[in-house]
Amino acid sequence: MVRCDMIKYLGSKRRLVPVLRDLLSSSGASTALDLFTGTTRVARAFKEEGALVTAVDTARYSEVFGRCYLELDACEVDQSQLVRTIDDLNRVAGEPGYITETFSHRSRFFRPENAARIDAIRELLETRYRESWMYPALLTSLILAADRVDSTTGVQMAYVKQWAPRSAKPLELRVPELLPGTGRMLRGDAIELAGTVGSFDLAYLDPPYNQHRYYTNYHIWETLVAWDDPEHYGVACKRVDSRDESTKSVFNKKREMPGALGRVVGEVDAHVVVLSYNNEAWVEIDELVTMMRSRGRVHVLAFDSKRYVGAQIGIHNRAGERVGEVSHLRNLEYVLVAGDRSIADRMVQPFRGHLALTR
Length: 359
Ligand SMILES: C[S@@+](CC[C@H](N)C(=O)[O-])C[C@H]1O[C@@H](n2cnc3c(N)ncnc32)[C@H](O)[C@@H]1O
Hints:
This protein is of the alpha/beta class. The chain is built from 14 helices and twelve strands. The strands form three sheets. Strands 3-2-1-4-7-11-8-12 form an eight-stranded mixed beta sheet, sandwiched between helices. A two-stranded antiparallel ribbon has the order 5-6. It has a two-stranded antiparallel ribbon with strand order 9-10. Helix 1 (17-27) crosses helix 14, helix 3 (60-71) packs across helix 7 and helix 11 (257-267) runs parallel beside helix 12 (285-293). The model is unreliable at 307-320 (pLDDT under 50). It binds S-adenosylmethionine (SAM). Residues 9, 11-13, 36-39, 41-42, 56-59, 62, 189-191, 206-208, 214, 249, 251 line the site of S-adenosylmethionine (SAM).
């Protein structure tokens, strides 16, 4: 099971992971592609199921996560060395640098004492561990530690006005939960890689579906990996290169996104394609079904995502008695499964209760 190595991430498939894991398992896939891997959470679940996984993303931090969780083999590496090194790093004293100046003095993403420790540890990773097999695991550990003490609502376009309570906790690196087996991580554009990255039993696609850019929403993680002290702008001190066309994704452009996704769906070389989608997206579900028809049989599974708090606890009167139900949902998450008829039918069999459409 993927347990606690969680980072706050827009569109992360935390709740759908068990479904995606079961779909992979009932497909019988032994190779899988996760083309927009983000946190690598889904790719990790596939790896745990025994699949040989290739993951792709444009983000620098995703590449680091992939090198850590997918490429490192828990059975092959010296985990005690990793534990000792992380213990040592947790004793490193703070030394203010770019992170402190930019994200603690000019903005307020981290408390100064934590920012100074992030600076000191990150610098040490560069000077002492750059060539070590542990480098991606240490950097992953640092990003996750920073995420646990940041003062945001989960995106880095802004920090919260009052310090978030968690920001007062001391930064603490933990040992990442490495998995047995190996895999492959590629940093690159899904459009360029979809048709060239290899053949797979199953391909999973979870692209951005609206204007929210990952590059700007997670600019601090980009900088923590690049370690390049970039010029910045605005209250959130975003990297100046956020303005460059090269850092923009076609999946965040309303007019271009459907065509780009259609191309990826058409080009990816896999027996089955699984696509996540939620109804807050630009593209209509019908349009996606049409796209996926090129792959063969299409099934659409629908899952309620978290309901409003009122919907979870019901409506109560002043005496605290339950007097009604809230019927509306915050949103629906869809999983589209397309491919060879026999495999696609078998995959959705355990989810019959969620089947919304078959074409
Ligand atoms: C919805 S998130 C994926 C979340 C992931 N499934 C998870 O559970 O963590 C979309 C991802 O697509 C990546 N992305 C955006 N444009 C891309 C592109 N052109 N090629 C590859 N990845 C891209 C973003 O960096 C982001 O990590």
